[in-house]
UniProtKB/TrEMBL annotation:
Domain of life: Eukaryota
PANTHER family assigned to the protein according to its UniProt record, in alphabetical order: D-THREO-ALDOSE 1-DEHYDROGENASE, NADP-DEPENDENT OXIDOREDUCTASE DOMAIN-CONTAINING PROTEIN
Name this protein carries in UniProt: NADP-dependent oxidoreductase domain-containing protein
CDD domains: AKR_unchar
Matching InterPro entries: AKR2_Oxidoreductase (IPR053135), NAD(P)_OxRdtase_dom_sf (IPR036812), NADP_OxRdtase_dom (IPR023210)
Pfam families: Aldo_ket_red (PF00248)
Domain NADP-dependent oxidoreductase as annotated: residue spans: 57-291
Length: 331
C-alpha cells in the first residue's frame, strides 16, 4: 500500500498530535491496544477490498522501539489473526528508548524517549524487535538520524546493520527530522558498506508536508538514486488541518482537508509512500481516500491548479516550522 499506518500515536498514551483527547477515550494499555486493533482491522479490510485481478494490496504497519508498545501490539495482532509474513509489510526503527512509563504528562524537561545510536544499543534493540515482530519485519530503520548522534560516521554500526541485512533479508533505512533533513539525506546516500561497496540505506523516512517542503529536492535526489521515499507527519501532527488556505482549497476540491494535504504529498515527483497517523477508523478511512485525490491533483487541469495553489499557499519557513513543532505539548 502507498499509505501505511504509523503506530507512533497508537502505541503509547501520549503523543504530540493535536486533539488526542477527542479520539482516545481510554489510555490504559488494554484500551490503547483495543483501539490499535480496531484501526489495524480497518487497514486490513481496506487492503483486501482494494486487491483484485490477482494483485495483492499488502497492508503496511510502521513501528519503533520507542513507540511505547507498538511492536508488541502489532506482533500480537498479526499472530492472533494468523497473518502470514507475506501478507503484511512491517517496518520498525531502533535508536530511541521509551522512558515515559505509560504516562502522558511528565515533569518539565523530562523526555518521553531517549536517543542512543551506539552499537551496544543497536545490538540490544534489534533483538527486542526480532522477538516481537521478527518474522514480519521487512524494513529496519535508524530512528531520527542526526549529525550529532554519530550514526552517519559510525562504521561499526554500519557493518552491524549490513550484517543484519545479509542474515535476515531486511531492507535498511533511516528516518530524519529537523531543519537540516536534506543535508542528512545527502550524507546518508553516500554511505557504503561491503566489498564491492553497496549503499547502506535502501530508504529514507522524512517529515514532509504542505507546511514543511524544504526536503523536497533532496527527496527527489534520493528517489532518482534508487531509494524508497517514505513520508511521516504528512499532516504536521494535525496542524495542516487548521490552515485556512488548505481548508478553503479542500472545499473547492470537494474533499476532506486531510485528503488534500496527504494527496498533495502523494502527488510529489519523488513518488513517496506515506504514513497515516490515524488513531480512529474514520481517520484512517479518510486518509486512505487521499489516493484518489492525489490522482485528480496530477491528472485533471483543476487538480493541477489546486495542487500548485496549496503548495504555494501553505508553505512555511523551515526554521519556523520546526520551532512551532518543538512547542507542541504531549497530550
Amino acid at each position: 500500500m502507498r499509505i501505511g499506518l504509523g503506530m507512533a500515536a497508537l502505541g503509547r498514551p501520549g503523543y504530540i498530535n493535536l486533539s488526542r483527547d477527542t479520539h482516545l477515550p481510554s489510555r490504559t494499555v488494554e484500551g490503547m491496544q483495543s483501539q490499535a486493533n480496531a484501526v489495524m482491522d480497518e487497514l486490513f479490510g481496506r487492503a483486501a477490498a482494494a486487491s483484485g485481478d490477482g494483485e495483492k494490496n499488502v497492508p503496511w504497519l510502521d513501528c519503533a522501539r520507542s513507540y511505547g508498545l507498538s511492536e508488541k501490539f502489532v506482533g500480537e495482532y498479526l499472530r492472533s489473526r494468523n497473518v502470514s509474513p507475506d501478507e503484511v509489510y512491517v517496518s520498525s526503527k531502533w535508536g530511541y528508548t521509551y522512558v515515559a512509563d505509560w504516562n502522558v504528562e511528565l515533569d518539565d524537561g523530562e523526555p518521553h524517549e531517549v536517543k542512543d545510536h551506539s552499537l551496544p544499543n543497536f545490538l540490544k534493540q534489534v533483538e527486542e524487535t526480532r522477538e516481537l515482530v521478527g518474522s514480519y519485519l521487512k524494513l529496519y530503520q535508524v530512528h531520527s538520524a542526526t549529525m550529532e548522534s554519530g550514526i552517519l560516521t559510525n562504521t561499526g554500526v554500519h557493518e552491524a546493520l549490513h550484517k543484519c541485512r545479509q542474515e535476515h533479508g531486511w531492507k535498511l533505512g533511516l528516518s530524519v527530522s529537523g531543519t537540516n533533513q536534506d543535508d542528512i539525506i545527502r550524507k546518508a546516500m553516500a554511505i557504503t558498506v561491503g566489498e564491492p561497496p553497496v549503499r547502506l540505506f535502501d530508504s529514507v523516512q522524512c517529515t514532509y508536508n504542505v507546511l514543511e517542503q524544504k526536503p523536497g529536492t533532496a527527496l527527489l535526489e534520493a528517489r532518482e538514486a534508487g531509494m524508497d521515499v517514505i513520508i511521516k507527519e504528512g499532516l504536521a501532527n494535525g496542524r495542516t488541518l487548521r490552515h485556512p488556505r488548505l481548508l478553503e482549497l479542500s472545499e473547492r476540491m470537494g474533499c476532506n482537508a486531510d485528503q488534500l494535504a496527504l494527496g498533495a504529498v502523494l502527488a510529489q515527483p519523488f513518488r513517496p509512500r506515506v504514513l497515516s497517523g490515524a488513531v480512529t477508523t474514520d481517520q484512517l478511512s479518510s486518509n486512505l481516500d487521499a489516493l484518489g485525490v492525489s490522482e485528480k491533483l496530477t491528472t485533471t487541469e483543476e487538480g493541477k491548479k489546486i495542487l500548485e495553489e496549496v503548495m504555494a499557499g501553505c508553505r512555511m519557513d523551515s526554521e519556523d516550522y520546526w520551532k512551532d513543532r518543538s512547542a507542541l505539548k504531549w497530550n
